């Protein structure tokens, strides 16, 4: 039977060896809270997306959900919603941010604090301020922006999702309404040990675009022929892992990390 959406228990089972784990208490809470939140939010699908580590140890659990995926301008577009929790039981909306705020969020480095109420202060030069003259006694004060931690969290999730979001090649198809739906005739990956067997979720079904066409060295795949399980990991965003189980015909992914991009990757290739 073809998988319609990832199973949290199987994802944690197959990716535990990669370090993609949550506590037993959180997993027990997730088994009950995510189905309830999916119904409350009116979503067709809702699953655990990942865990972003924090300085105070109160990590952010992030859930990803959507209703409809459609074909627009040569890509698969998902109406995605994100939610966050720090105990796995109570979920709150993780609101999208505008482009200007996203640009400022990208300047904030390091681990998140773990305090959802925290604000980061960023200073920018006032573009409307006059140029200071040598005779001026007072310095021109910069503009100060308050950036909420939850905005930084959302921006990091968006950046990771845009660069990862892996699914098996040909596991989705386009229906008559140009919607991206699970391929119920998917027979499995012919060569699970190769990157050609996997694609980004936002690549259109049948487009032929696979992970092998990404920048060389950004992905690594390991296949256990005895268990029939492949593990794909991102080197661009360390902490993102995807698994594909050939015998069970299941797959799923999880991110566990600080949400930061590996900007040294180009020097490692």
From TrEMBL:
<keyword id="KW-0966">Cell projection</keyword>
<keyword id="KW-0963">Cytoplasm</keyword>
<keyword id="KW-0206">Cytoskeleton</keyword>
<dbReference type="GO" id="GO:0060294">
    <property type="term" value="P:cilium movement involved in cell motility"/>
</dbReference>
<feature type="compositionally biased region" description="Basic and acidic residues">
    <location>
        <begin position="118"/>
        <end position="128"/>
    </location>
</feature>
<feature type="region of interest" description="Disordered">
    <location>
        <begin position="116"/>
        <end position="136"/>
    </location>
</feature>
<keyword id="KW-0970">Cilium biogenesis/degradation</keyword>
<dbReference type="GO" id="GO:0035082">
    <property type="term" value="P:axoneme assembly"/>
</dbReference>
<keyword id="KW-0282">Flagellum</keyword>
<dbReference type="GO" id="GO:0044458">
    <property type="term" value="P:motile cilium assembly"/>
</dbReference>
<protein>
    <recommendedName>
        <fullName>Radial spoke head protein 9 homolog</fullName>
    </recommendedName>
</protein>
<comment type="similarity">
    <text>Belongs to the flagellar radial spoke RSP9 family.</text>
</comment>
<dbReference type="InterPro" id="IPR055316">
    <property type="entry name" value="RSP9"/>
</dbReference>
<dbReference type="GO" id="GO:0005930">
    <property type="term" value="C:axoneme"/>
</dbReference>
<keyword id="KW-0969">Cilium</keyword>
